[in-house]
Amino acid sequence: MASDLDIARASRLRPIGDIAAAAGIPAEALIPYGHHKGKVDGGFIRSLEDRPDGALVLVAGISPTPAGEGKTTTSIGLGDALRAA
What we know:
Elements: H1 4-10, H2 16-22, E1 30-32, E2 38-40, H3 42-46, H4 71-84
Antiparallel strand pairs: 1-2
């Protein structure tokens, strides 16, 4: 099994603008903090108020498995599954 450091070194970060675009967030609503992270402008969030509510999946207070799978891994897996559905 690869170590966490090996996995991190092998990963390739995508520009935050590409990720935002894939989520339907326009470039003008993205406040970048470097190349790989950012915030979404509050005005854009408020512009979505007339849309139907989505679903919230809250993952909190679980103990990680011996392999280190905890809240983050579970949240990412659920997000990937919901996006694919």
